[in-house]
């Protein structure tokens, strides 16, 4: 019989942070991480910032020896089938059962392929395996199309262009990052893409992914030996939903301590709709830093230590030689004030009399 302890589902920043934090407080209670990914836990931001571009990237969160030394049982390539809330057990697809005293759901999110004919043939960029496949494909490609102009799409496009691939970004919005940052910022991001060697085609709907690239609603074909899907992700809340946990807007509802509606079950990272004390409301975040912080809060709470999520969200994006750094809540805003500077710009987002976000863009000179 496997001894009960803390079980984390997912080996991303939230799951690893929860396990690491709990272990630091309780040296003798079993700690396990169940991961569907066969790779050692790794950081995802460097995949589209450095690894795809061919630059040195520090990916490993910890070495295999670190997990052994800290007596954290890392089980890779394991698919969790269900959570038995009454028995307080996690059941895998192979029939193994892992009892828990505390459970952290950090199952992350899965990429959503374009909902068009051939859409599943577009290459995602979510995992290390995805990044390796895309990097290999780029070696033999002369052209590439990136569908979607969000953060990952813009970063991936910049990397592909840096590898010498003629790259086009296609998006239904008139400018990149429109919904998050507005038109004024989006127009400046178009220039960043252009400076990075990327062509941007906005207000364009992809109707099919074909062998030669993509087909647009107007009938135009955009050539792409490689087609990348940067069309968003969907939080993986299946286990939580089937276990009867409270779900809202497709995410697991948690309080500021990362507690779910079920006893001794916590959630952290992309899957959560979490209450942030500083914001005074529930906040959705899909960024690495927040996932790690939420995982730490979950680990502390499970360990019996008082903790709460009370920091502002933050992330960065790299496009060629330009860098965008954001801090704020990422929600609705009434107005945006953009001030251009010699090496970039600063955008401040206001809601009523409050500042709810700040974006700083800087461009490094080409050496």
From TrEMBL:
Cleaved signal peptide residues: none
Cofactor requirements of the protein: FAD
KW Oxidoreductase (keyword) present: yes
Lineage: superkingdom: Bacteria
Keyword terms: FAD, Flavoprotein, Oxidoreductase
UniProt keyword Oxidoreductase, yes or no: yes
A GO molecular function held by the record: oxidoreductase activity, acting on NAD(P)H
Gene Ontology CC: cytoplasm
FAD/NAD(P)-binding domain: residues covered: 7-295
Gene3D superfamilies: FAD/NAD(P)-binding domain
A Pfam family hit: Pyr_redox_2
Protein name: Ferredoxin
Organism lineage: Bacteria, Bacillati, Actinomycetota, Actinomycetes, Mycobacteriales
